[in-house]
Amino acid sequence: MNFLEALDMGKYALYVWGSFGVTALCMIAEPLLLRGRLGRARRRIARLNRLESNKQ
Amino acid sequence: MQNRLINWFKFSSPATFYPLARRLAPIFWAIAIVLVAIGLYMSFFVAPVDYKQGDGYRIIFIHVPASWMSMFIYLVMAGWSAIGLIFNTRLSFMMSQALAPTGALFAFISLWTGSFWGKPMWGTWWVWDARITSELILLFLYLGYMALVAAIDDRRRADRAGAILLLVGVVNIPIIYFSVKWWNTLHQGATIKMNGQTSMDETMLLTMLIMALGFWAYSIAAAMVRVQSIILEREAGSTWAQELIGERA
Question: Which residue among B54, B228, B233 sits closest to A10, beta carbon to beta carbon?
Fold first, then answer.
């Protein structure tokens, strides 16, 4: 069985790839969003630090 | 015993848990990527075609693990909330909040893949069947919890209100799990029963378990990253957080 044959879901293609595709999208998007949020939280504290050091 | 208690409580402080979460996250991302890659390979190249459902059954390899995770994460969140209410530890509530979006994501994936499986096999995208409806309620519980926590400005009150909502909602979990037994539903019975019996081919079962472990690792990794954000957002004014970011900058 070659690679493409194994991935040929026949009449179920829409359903199988619709399921796996949306799951993949979700599970790739979530970590990216998480990374963005953590970066924002860190930058905010760095900004607060700068503001504080400017005051002194 | 005394020592043990001290060790446990040491990590209940956000300041000590933050570095631990930072170390754990990449380890669990790596485990998740490896397991899901093996699971996907087995889903398409190793697991045989089903005699009845053809290739359509392969949806099971994400549908069942996602459904398990959606229920399990809810139980873990409720557990953290109970600990938070009893011991008044802020980190416990933060852990509940860190898990909620991932739990909601898996509840959504469970419903979505279920729908894409139901159409070719039952001829319908959706039915108001006991199991499907109770899983939908689980998704709403997740969304309701997140909305409630976000809507209350006072963090301590938000934590407590959310925790109580989670604990009340636990009643839904056995309803989902046993729904296929208690009611006559269109949804099939449990694939793996509590007494260890399965109604599945061994390769298919192994594939599903590997995917489930991969989803576990993914959930832990996601929660570890999210809890870092929550800690930093809530502790932004504290000296330790400012020192920590200052050192790295």
Answer: B54
